[in-house]
């Protein structure tokens, strides 16, 4: 599991299942109706269809492994007997007028100095959570305004990242704010290797509290990628160039990106 490039989400799904009452029952005692009730409960809780689908897919895989490799050939897979959720519709949530200021203000009051910085960099670089919080200073060149990402971070799927990521003026300013300065005013990068010397979990917890206080609804951390892509379109960049920055390998992934919404900041 941990050998995967991005195991975080799958580990989180396993942790959620371990907290579920169904995890205390034997495989042979589980029925399709049990998972149908779980599916419906997750829907009532407002979880996305694709989130539910992936949760059920994990358990279905467990049953198949038990059948094929654990000597339980006669064990039926109860997931085959229920209707599976379809994939989610693409989200196109952007920051609305005033939301950036409200969120940023809340993040700035956090004891974690990287909370607001992570939020700004997420928007300005469009980097996914897994890459953003692993970004190291050795990959950042403030002079050429580029981030050079190692080959091990590059993927062949839609969740790829570009080998060279140009930095906006705002992104450079945010990165410089982390640095100290010498007598000539030249930024000195921190000795710690990570640009964001904190964890993704810490920032996401602060983020959730930040959007709860001003009661901002239907906004997720990942939505700032829609915001980032939309801003690139608003600057007049063509789809291929936007995809080269955001790391999308398919134009379908960019389809529906909102570009006509009012800029929030």
What does this structure look like?
With 265 residues, the protein is mainly α. It folds into two domains: 8-81, no CATH class; 99-254, hpI Integrase, Chain A (Orthogonal Bundle), CATH 1.10.443. Helices cover 45% and strands 5% of the residues. The chain has eleven helices and five strands, in the order ααααααβββαββαααα. The protein has helices spanning 8-18, 32-44, 49-69, 99-108, 114-125, 129-132, 169-178, 200-212, 223-234, 239-246, 251-254, and strands spanning 140-141, 146-148, 164-166, 180-181, 187-188. The strands form two sheets. Strands 1-2-3 form a three-stranded antiparallel sheet. It has a two-stranded antiparallel sheet with strand order 4-5. α5 (114-125) runs antiparallel to α7 and α5 crosses α9 (223-234). 22% of the residues are buried.
């Amino acid at each position: 599991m941990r050998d995967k490039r991005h195991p975080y989400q799958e580990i989180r799904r396993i942790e959620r299942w371990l907290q579920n009452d169904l995890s205390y029952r034997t495989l042979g005692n589980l029925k399709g109706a049990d998972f149908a009730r779980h599916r419906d409960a997750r829907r009532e809780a407002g979880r996305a269809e694709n989130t539910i689908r992936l949760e059920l897919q994990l358990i279905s895989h467990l049953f198949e492994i038990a059948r094929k490799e654990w000597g339980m050939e006669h064990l039926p897979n109860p997931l085959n007997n229920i209707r599976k959720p379809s994939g989610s519709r693409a989200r196109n949530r952007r920051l609305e007028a005033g939301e950036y200021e409200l969120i940023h203000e809340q993040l700035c009051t956090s004891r974690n100095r990287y909370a607001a910085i992570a939020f700004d960099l997420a928007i300005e670089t469009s980097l996914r959570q897994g890459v953003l919080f692993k970004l190291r200073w050795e990959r950042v060149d403030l002079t050429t305004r580029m981030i050079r990402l190692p080959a091990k971070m590059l993927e062949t799927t839609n969740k790829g990242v570009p080998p060279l990521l140009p930095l906006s003026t705002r992104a450079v300013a945010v990165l410089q704010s982390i640095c100290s300065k010498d007598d000539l005013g030249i930024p000195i990068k921190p000795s710690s290797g990570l640009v964001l010397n904190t964890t993704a979990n810490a920032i996401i917890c602060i983020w959730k509290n930040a959007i709860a206080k001003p009661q901002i609804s239907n906004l997720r951390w990942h939505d700032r990628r829609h915001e980032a892509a939309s801003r690139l379109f608003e600057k007049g960049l063509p789809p291929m160039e936007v995809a080269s920055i955001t790391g999308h390998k398919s134009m379908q992934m960019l389809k529906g990106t909102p570009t006509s919404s009012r800029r929030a900041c």
